[in-house]
User: Fold this.
Amino acid sequence: MMGLIRLIILGALIYFAIRWIINKLKPPQPSPQVGPEAQSDRLAQCAQCGVWIPQRRSIQRADQHYCTERCADLGPKHGGDG
Ligand SMILES: [Zn+2]
Assistant:
């Protein structure tokens, strides 16, 4: 039964060799620096003047984002005559 033991040892060696190779091939992953504030740091475009503002600082009215109260009062920009 010596063959079986040698097979197990060989299998273990191959297993550790593959693990070592995978570790070497994998590039070091930089730890993502995502804070709790970064999640809500998405940009929204003002429906009136087209300026980009952080979504959490924008004024939302009727599913539209506005940069200021003034833009919100004017409403979404209409195409055509202006
Ligand atoms: Zn605006």
